[in-house]
Amino acid sequence: MNNYPFFTMDDFDFDNKCVYLRIDINSPINPITQEIMDDSRLNSYSETINELSDSKLVITAHQGRPGDDDFTSLKYHSRYLSKLMGREILFIDSLFGSSVDYAVSRMKKGDIIMLENTRFYSEEVSINFNNFNIIENTHIVKNLSKLFDYYIIDAFGAVHRPHTSLIGFKKSGPMIAGRLMEREISMLDKFKYSNQRPKIAILGGSKVSDAVKVSRSFFEKGIVDYILYGGVAANLFLLASGKNIGKRNIDFIKNNNKNYLELIDMARNLIEKYPEKIILPDDFILNPSQKNITLKDNVPDNELLADIGFNSIEKFKDYIKRAKNIFINGPMGMYEINEYSIGTREILDEISNSSAMKIVGGGHTISAVNRFGFRKYMDYVSTGGGALINYLSGDSIPVIDALIENKKMFGD
Ligand SMILES: Nc1ncnc2c1ncn2[C@@H]1O[C@H](COP(=O)(O)OP(=O)(O)O)[C@@H](O)[C@H]1O
Ligand SMILES: O=C(OP(=O)(O)O)[C@H](O)COP(=O)(O)O
After folding, report:
1. Can you name the residues that pair with 36 across neighbouring β-strands?
2. In this predicted structure, what is the pLDDT of residue 152?
3. pLDDT digits (tens, 9 = 90+) for 7-64
4. Cα 256 from chain centre
5. Same structural domain for residues 158 and 254?
6. Strand order in the sheet with 292-294
7. Residue whose CA is closest, atom 26 of ligand 1?
8. Beta bridge partners of 382
9. What is the spatial distance between Cα 10 and Cα 15, in angstroms, rounded to a whole number?
């Protein structure tokens, strides 16, 4: 038996068994060619998949969110993974139903199948996850649970999402943490339990809802001393503090967050309670004009605050220099475009030069770290973005909770 409160792959023998493996290979996608722009997440599953080479292995995963450019089929991911692993992977363009049943019934030991993007099915994300009866009664769970002996969940990047393909099988059979989950948890615990101060978080990117939610826990529980905000997360806090961030930036927040008024309220409360811990940029590079402006200037309606400006970079660097523990999730701006990549690059450069413990995570953040050549300077590169910050925040994590519950049910 292992030392974790959940099953790991050490606890079972998968020889000739039918195994469900949920991974997170959600990757940055080129919106024009649909090519995978960074294969870090795909690369992180070699240990798990190699260890399952005696099983009949069926892989599920998601890519993107409905409505977004990167909401694509997993056909390309299956080809990519097949090449990386040097193993044939049969792609089935459904998640469940007769074509899946038939393909699985014909599997032999050593075969691998990958199913279609779980988020092509609304039952994956749009049901009431507080009621497990509903989850258990989805077509996804009813159909797939007929097929498997074991359910391995290795999607560390999505552990903070209580979605059907991630937690829905907790009563169907043993649910097991994969090798990536084990590695992530043991590495992140080193940071979580380190008492070296100051500890700082750097939160950027576009998923502001995760950023605001965890900020509260980070401050309330004293997990970090400062949070430096970039990207859309910074825009949200600036808006909440009464700054004029311009129509296009407000619309970006509104259009991507149904609960944006609630987010602004939460951000405002945090600013009132922890003013000295919230570190915000005060100048920016505009897109499309590429002008450097401060927030004292008016932000024209058609401009995005696409990168943090030079004063803000220097201000952030001062905090990074003094830190003993640092983690970063989310780029400082639209790093994919050269003209707006300087903030992200400079901040990653300063982190790389620091002697603090340095953790970095998130699909786009890893892609930036790889692209700008900083990977070798990081102590740990987590595959999780939202997952990383939620895990470090000490809040309850739906997938980990489900794994723990499952071990209690199937433990003996
Ligand atoms: N100020 C901004 N306005 C619009 N998009 C932004 C801004 N800053 C960053 N982004 C975008 O955020 C995306 C990355 O965010 P996110 O998915 O949250 O990061 P991660 O995958 O590392 O967790 C990038 O595509 C980047 O272009
Ligand atoms: O890429 C992911 O999150 P991340 O961008 O926070 O690292 C995960 O696959 C979760 O995706 P989601 O935030 O669309 O639920």
Report:
1. 29
2. 98
3. 999 999 999 999 999 999 999 898 788 889 889 899 999 999 999 999 999 999 999 9
4. 17
5. no
6. 292-294, 283-287, 304-308
7. 334
8. 361
9. 13
Output the pLDDT for position 297. Answer: 79
**Domain shared by 140 and 209, yes or no:** no
CB atoms closer than 10 angstroms to residue 72: 18
What size, in residues, is the chain?
A: 412
**Tokens representing residue 406 in the block:** 């499952």
Cis check: omega of the bond before 398, within 30 degrees of 0: no
Output the pLDDT for position 292: 94
Under-70 pLDDT residues of the chain = 1, 412
Within 10 angstroms of residue 264's Cβ, the number of other Cβ atoms is 21
Domain carrying residue 228: 197-355
3-state percent helix, strand, coil for the chain, nearest multiple of 5: 45, 15, 40
Predicted pLDDT at 11: 96
Q: CATH number, domain at 161?
A: 3.40.50.1260
If asked whether residues 331 and 271 sit together in one domain, one would say yes
Residues 362 and 380 sit within 8 Å (Cβ to Cβ): no
Distance 29 CA to ligand 2 centre (A): 13
62 is in an annotated binding site: yes
How many other β-carbons are positioned within 10 Å of the β-carbon of residue 234?
29
Cα 289 from Cα 365, distance rounded (Å)? 25
Residues 274 and 337 in one domain: yes
What is the 385 CA–ligand 2 centroid distance (Å)?
Answer: 7
Helix (H, G, I), strand (E, B) or coil at 96: coil
Question: Annotated binding residue at 29?
Answer: no
The reply, when asked if residue 160 is annotated as ligand binding, is: no
Q: Best mutation site among 25, 26, 41, 42 for ligand 2, i.e. most ligand atoms within 8 A of its Cβ?
A: 26
Torsion angles phi and psi, residue 355, rounded to 5 = -90, 5
Pairing outcome for strands 90-91 and 112-114 = parallel
Structure tokens that stand for 292 in this block = 């450097």
Report the predicted TM-score, pTM, of the whole model to 2 decimal places.
0.92
Q: Please, are residues 179 and 51 in contact by the beta-carbon 8 Å criterion?
A: yes
392 CA distance to ligand 1 middle (Å): 20
The answer on 167 and 204 residing in a single domain is no
| CA nearest to 91, candidates 79, 107, 106, 101 | 79
Q: Residue 81: what are its φ and ψ, rounded to 5°?
A: -65, -40
Is residue 362 lining ligand 2, measured as CB closer than 6 Å?
A: yes
Phi, psi angle pair for 389, to nearest 5°:
-70, -35
Question: ipTM more than 0.85?
Answer: yes
Residue 156 shares a structural domain with residue 236? no
Whether omega for the bond prior to residue 198 falls within 30 degrees of 0, making it cis, is yes
